Amino acid sequence: MTSTALPGGTFTMADDLTVTRVGYGAMQLAGPGVFGPPADRDAAVAVLREVVELGITHIDTSDYYGPHVTNQIIKEALHPYPDDLRIVTKVGSVRDAQGGWPRALAPEQLRQAVHDNLTNLGLDALDVVNLRVGGLDRPEPGSIAEPFSALAQLQREGLVKHLGLSTVNAEQIAEAQSIAPVVCVQNFYNIAHREDDALVDSLTAQGIAYVPYFPLGGFSPLQSEELDAVATRLDTTPLAVALAWLLRRSPNILLIPGTSSVAHLRENVAGAGLTIPEEELAALDRIAG
């Protein structure tokens, strides 16, 4: 399968940054709780190689997955990387001994995080680095000028090609844009949690990619009888419906569903290509109230 055969086609974030709208999120390649090594490292390697075989050119990761484990597996599986593969990483947290996610937004911490990503991925420069600044599933107000300026400095040094943001609001995006261009925003958004509807539309108008995480609610899975009913009527899974809905929602939306299974990866790609009839779209729109 070539990338053009994937559901949704491609999206261009910058002149040198075009990716398939169906991507892959590598978080689940680490151990339980995104901490430590996976139970089956060979299976994780196989998933990543299948990602490339399917024509996916967008992998989302972070060196705090594991920590370090996921990026090291990506390097083992795929380095030297295909010319068209783009790896998007994020910084702004570290992992403590208990598996927690304390923030790490000081300039020296961000510099160290970028160098860790470079080392563990085996790269001289990172395609995209997202600055994650909010809580688990929603932005927190406040200036992000200091940490984003630190990343902009690393961009000027040639260690980072493009910059993005994660778990931010419209004001923070505008503040970041006054410092350096923003090519993507990664926020919590799905069929039932649509607080970012206006933001999605604003970013579409600006040609900026919107990358929703937790398409089925993440650590607190959404419970929706309506979603389950639509999936049953279409003889598919709720995740397939959720992914297909996101792909249809706006042309700038990029999908990064994660899995540690080759079979599930293939199901996700096929599910994203689901055609949702108009009457079912109306039913789905009612989920968010």
List keywords for this structure.
seven-stranded parallel sheet; two-stranded antiparallel ribbon; alpha/beta; globular; 289 residues; 37% helix; 10 helices
List the helices and strands and how they pair.
Layout: E1 10-14, E2 17-20, E3 24-25, H1 41-53, E4 58-60, H2 69-78, E5 86-91, H3 107-121, E6 126-132, H4 145-156, E7 160-166, H5 170-177, E8 184-188, H6 197-206, E9 209-213, H7 225-233, H8 238-249, H9 262-272, H10 278-285
Parallel strand pairs: 3-4, 4-5, 5-6, 6-7, 7-8, 8-9
Antiparallel strand pairs: 1-2
* DSSP summary, beta strand count: 9
Tally of individual helices: 10
* pLDDT < 50 runs, ≥5 residues: none
Mean pLDDT: 94
Proportion of strand residues: 15-25%
Radius of gyration: 18 Å
Query: How does the helix and strand content classify structurally?
Result: alpha/beta
The string of secondary-structure elements, in order, is EEEHEHEHEHEHEHEHHHH
**Spatial ordering of strands, largest sheet:** 3-4-5-6-7-8-9
For the report, how would you describe the main beta sheet? 7 strands, parallel
Helix content: 25-40%
C-alpha termini separation: 38 Å
What shape does the CA trace take?
A: globular
Describe this structure as you would to a colleague.
The protein is α/β, with parallel strands linked by helices and 289 residues long. The chain is 37% helix and 15% strand. The protein is built from ten helices and nine strands. It has helices at residues 41-53, 69-78, 107-121, 145-156, 170-177, 197-206, 225-233, 238-249, 262-272, 278-285, and strands at residues 10-14, 17-20, 24-25, 58-60, 86-91, 126-132, 160-166, 184-188, 209-213. Strands 3-4-5-6-7-8-9 form a seven-stranded parallel β-sheet, covered by helices on one side. It has a two-stranded antiparallel sheet with strand order 1-2. Helix 1 packs across helix 2, helix 7 packs across helix 8 and helix 8 crosses helix 9. The longest helix is centred in the middle third of the chain and has 15 residues, at 107-121. The radius of gyration is 18 Å and the shape is globular.
